[in-house]
Amino acid sequence: MENQKNNRKTIIRIVNTFFIIAFVIVLAVVGWLLYNELYPNDEIIVKTIASDDTGINWDRLREMNPDIVGWIKIDDTRIDSPVVQTTDNVKYLNTNFQGDWDERGTLFLDCDYHWDGTAKNSVIYGHSIFREGSGIHVMFDDLHNYIDSENPEDYYQKHKIIEYDRPPEKGGNAKYQIISVFECESITDYVKMYFGSEQEFVDYYTNLVGMSAVKTYATIAPGEEILTLSTCTEKVQFNDGRLVVIAKRLHFGYEGGTQN
After folding, report:
1. Which pLDDT belongs to residue 136?
2. How remote is the C-alpha of 109 from its chain's centroid?
3. Report field, pTM of the whole predicted structure over 0.85
């Protein structure tokens, strides 16, 4: 009888241990799945590996992905991600920074941007609102706040600076001030990178500043360096809509106001 009781206790302990282990495994799997949903491209892990006491360690990033060309960040938003470039504008629509398939993709620089100094506009593409209302974060989600927040003008004033860091040989670290935010059809001409003259350049971006949904009071001068962020919008008035955020590089440490 005593042996039977001991055997039952042993079986109960084994069963309990099994269920505890199974529960821990389920929690770990669920946690990992949630992490992948909430943090595309393992952003936390990549950021940890990429950063050291001097800032971004580009050599470490190149070891992870040789296509790395920059890192983009907007303070007080979830935009804090690597930027890659390859020979087409298709691969990183559904490929993460580690090179695996991921429907959320990776932020990527237009393949037609040349690093010889002739390009005037760095166009970076990224997904957003991939599953609207799901709570899942996609890289350029927060760009929609410039249009759709309760007070877009106030949001712009608090988030008008974009930090776009690049390796020293590709232009180094810089800050850009947003000069225009608008929604349009995908066929709208806003991704031009090369211009026949400085006047053509000034006229082109003066027109895009005039399209802005928020008042930026920006002016364009010859020799400016432009940064364009492009993502999708699903608003019904557009057949194939885009949300566009355009910024110009700041110089001499100036980070605000409306002057050049």
Report:
1. 61
2. 11
3. no
